[in-house]
Amino acid sequence: MKKGTIVFSKAGRDKGKALVVLEAEENFLLLADGEGRTLQRPKRKKIKHVQPTGTQIQMQPECGRALQDADVRKQLKAYENGGENGKRRCH
């Protein structure tokens, strides 16, 4: 699974929640949603407990700054609302 892929949790407290893959280990993924699971404190979850969507978020904002939790939240919200990957201009 690639970095930036949007997945849905199939098990656990976060079942049904959209998350973003930050890193893929052997049988585990590091996931964040920008709220409860931030980029600094990602969730470690087994690959078999997530459903990939095939959609990716933009992991590098266009203005060159580092990815922030707010960027992840906005892109996930836009995906859930049917938007175009949550793309927005940098401020």
Q: List the uncertain runs.
A: 85-91
Q: Please count the helical segments.
A: 1
Structural class label: alpha+beta
Q: Beta-strand level of the residues, as a percent range?
A: 25-35%
Describe the structure.
- With 91 residues, this protein is of the alpha+beta class.
- The protein is 13% helix and 31% strand.
- It contains one helix and five strands.
- It has one helix at residues 69-80, and strands at 5-9, 18-24, 28-32, 43-46, 50-56.
- It has a five-stranded antiparallel β-sheet with strand order 4-3-2-1-5, with helices on one face.
- A hairpin with an 8-residue loop joins strand 1 and strand 2.
- The protein is globular and about 35 Å long.
Architecture blueprint of SSEs:
Layout: E1 5-9, E2 18-24, E3 28-32, E4 43-46, E5 50-56, H1 69-80
Antiparallel strand pairs: 1-2, 1-5, 2-3, 3-4
Write out key terms for the chains shown:
alpha+beta, 5-stranded antiparallel β-sheet, disordered C terminus, about 90 residues
The gist of it:
The chain has one helix spanning 69-80; strands at residues 5-9, 18-24, 28-32, 43-46, 50-56. It is α+β, with helices and mostly antiparallel strands and 91 residues long.
